């Protein structure tokens, strides 16, 4: 077992980038090596209404979002282990405007060195559509965007 609530497999299958598809934008997809098919990765603020096309909903924040009770947020997996470390998050929030580029680089390094990344990628690779949920008010510069890019590149 990978340790995630929704995971029941320890198959260890990896991911590879999907370079072309006649049906989907290749910039937002990856394919599992176990033949499960194509997974589309989306991002959405936790405060937005869930949609029928959200698929497997993954909360990717380390801290629970303010103002939402746990029973009021529909999600399938809380992957707090894959979120930026507390130290990196704190460092970034002291001056977000000037630190975005360096934060992106450091978070990517954390993901590449994380023991949780492999099981996380394996779990989300089981689903056709995955929506990464985040709480940040900044839709243009948040860790969910970096994580989405990491997933799409297949680590």
Global outline: globular
* Number of helices, where a helix is a run of at least 4 consecutive DSSP H or I residues: 4
Major sheet characteristics: 6 strands, mixed
- Write down how many β-strands occur, each being a DSSP E stretch of 2 or more residues: 6
Distance from N terminus to C terminus (CA atoms, Å) equals 20 Å
Range of strand content = 15-25%
SSE series: EEEEEHHHEH
Rg (C-alpha, Å): 15 Å
Structure, briefly:
The chain is 28% helix and 17% strand.
Defining traits:
disordered N terminus, globular, alpha/beta, 155 residues, single chain
Report on the structure:
The chain has helices at residues 86-93, 96-113, 117-124, 143-152; strands at residues 15-17, 29-32, 38-45, 56-59, 77-78, 129-134. The chain has 155 residues and is α/β, with parallel strands linked by helices. Strands 1-2-3-6-4-5 form a six-stranded mixed sheet. Residues 1-35 have low confidence and may be disordered. Helix 1 packs antiparallel against helix 2 (96-113) and helix 2 (96-113) packs parallel to helix 4. 28% of the residues are buried. The protein contains four helices and six strands; from the N terminus they run βββββαααβα. The longest helix is centred in the C-terminal third of the chain and has 18 residues, at 96-113. Helix content is 28%, strand content 17%. The protein starts with 14 loop residues before the first strand and ends with a helix.
